[in-house]
Design brief:
The chain is α/β, with parallel strands linked by helices. The chain contains twelve helices and 25 strands. The protein is globular.
């Protein structure tokens, strides 16, 4: 009864909008329905409320009036204290319901029938810092997404509007039971993620790009899907050896990292794959072709090249003016690096000996990659492998209107972001490329193909009773 009298008070209050918003939010967070006289208040159903980031969410808004125009608004506060948001305009059906999985957005940060548009179309909120990137740092804590419903079609000043309904759902990178172990063995620095259970598990050595650091979220997600995964730090991270040691001619740091992973008691020995993005693409190929004792079961290389952009630990195009002259700039003033190694026939940078590849190789690249000529490199790799007679090992996937940063599914698209060039201690804006909708589709599709490729080449033959539990 007290909620009924509170609502009566709010409806008669002069500060109607503010009090109503506070009341609605408290009621919704408590899981109660609100009765406005003869009508039940709108209600958001989001399933699952707690799930992995690569899972689709079913969102439904009930108890609207028939043919009501509403705005759905989602937001996340990043670990860098930046607000990210998306919104979409919908019209309820004859029953007063909006089903995001089936209905079309009529406007907003995306349009059309997009079940996960309220996640992948997120952008930095107006007035915030620009050219930032939404990346999970502490993967033990989920992203909390707040989803609100507003009456009418609005596109700004959401904080000044009354909320009809609100729900908070969580997006995890670690499934329940996943184990996170910090690794510091010899010179090797990283984080090992183990799936629930006794093992042994097929394994992935996960390597990111030239920005450096220790990036854990893809490895955590792989472990949540049944693969032990070592997120390897090899550049610009505390206690990692200097570049001249990491990128020595024998690649001994990477050989040690492989041994740490392959010799772990919960790892299925000699059932290891490499996954690399950008510079990690090149490192994965080098490990598979230049270290005699390493024979990965398969390679997944994303947005990179067979051109080796470093020598003795230094980025060649940073110290050599012949390469810096090839750097272009977008209309927004962002750097475009894709022309640096082109044309391949004239480029003097060292390159991977593609004829040595003996493992199944999947290459994933965006045709609008403005950071590196990844599509051109994929074509060149295919040509070289055909000449060497090992092209039967190659699977190449091209995605139109897709940029460089091909992330796990439903990650927002970043066309331009800040990037620190550590060798000259300078932060610049980089044009990565891509268009939001096609790029997001590519992320969702490529993740499915990555998991299928790993499943094909890494899974052990377990008895049926055990296999059904994996």
């Amino acid at each position: 009864m007290k909620y009924f009298w509170m609502l009566r008070f709010i409806k008669g209050s002069s500060s109607n909008s503010l009090l109503k918003t506070i009341f609605v939010r408290r009621m919704l967070s408590s899981g109660r329905a609100i009765n406005y006289g003869q009508r039940v208040a709108p209600l958001i159903k989001a399933e699952p409320l707690r799930g992995l980031v690569d899972e689709s969410i079913k969102i439904e808004i009930a108890h609207l009036t028939p043919n009501q125009q509403v705005t759905l608004h989602s937001q996340i506060l990043s670990e860098d204290d930046d607000w990210w948001m998306a919104y979409a305009h919908y019209v309820s059906d004859s029953e007063g319901t909006v089903r995001v999985s089936h209905d079309k957005s009529m406007g907003g940060t995306y349009t059309g029938q997009e079940p996960m548009g309220l996640i992948w179309s997120m952008k930095l909120a107006p007035g915030g810092r620009q050219a930032m990137r939404l990346r999970k740092k502490d993967i033990t804590i989920p992203f909390s997404v707040t989803l609100s419903v507003y009456d009418g079609w609005i596109s700004n000043n959401f904080d000044k509007e009354a909320v009809l309904a609100l729900v908070v759902f969580e997006r995890f990178y670690m499934a329940p039971g996943t184990v996170r172990l910090q690794i510091k063995e010899g010179r090797v620095i990283g984080t090992l993620f183990l799936p629930p259970g006794p093992g042994p598990f097929p394994a992935v050595l996960d390597m990111w790009g030239g920005g450096g650091g220790l990036v854990e979220y893809r490895a955590a997600l792989l472990a949540s899907r049944g693969y032990a995964a070592l997120a390897l730090a090899y550049k610009e991270y505390k206690d990692v050896p200097p570049p001249e040691e990491v990128f020595d001619s024998k690649l001994s740091y990477f050989e040690e990292a492989f041994d740490v992973l392959n010799n772990h008691p919960k790892i299925a020995k000699d059932r290891t794959a490499f996954v690399g993005l950008s510079l990690g693409f090149t490192v994965a190929l080098l490990m598979a072709t230049e270290i005699p004792n390493i024979h990965p079961k398969c390679l997944i290389c994303i947005s990179g090249s067979h051109i080796i952009p470093f020598q003795e630990g230094t980025e060649l195009f940073v110290k050599d003016n012949d390469y810096t002259d090839k750097i272009k700039f977008s209309e927004e003033g962002a750097m475009i690096w894709r022309n640096i190694p082109l044309p391949f026939t004239d480029n003097l940078m060292p390159r991977v000996q593609i004829d040595k590849i003996q493992s199944p190789l999947m290459i994933i690249c965006g045709e609008d990659d403005q950071n590196w000529p990844t599509a051109e490199s994929a074509v060149e790799i295919k040509k070289l492998m055909k000449t060497a007679g090992n092209d039967h090992l190659l699977t190449t996937i091209f995605y139109p209107q897709t940029g460089h940063l091909i992330e796990p599914p439903y990650s927002p698209h970043f066309r331009i972001t800040k990037f620190k060039i550590h060798s000259i201690n300078k932060t610049v804006n980089i044009l990565w490329g891509g268009t939001t909708k096609p790029h997001s589709d590519a992320q969702e599709d490529s993740w499915k193909k990555i998991l299928a490729f790993l499943d094909k080449h890494l899974r052990l033959e377990y008895p049926p009773a055990i296999q059904s539990k994996l």
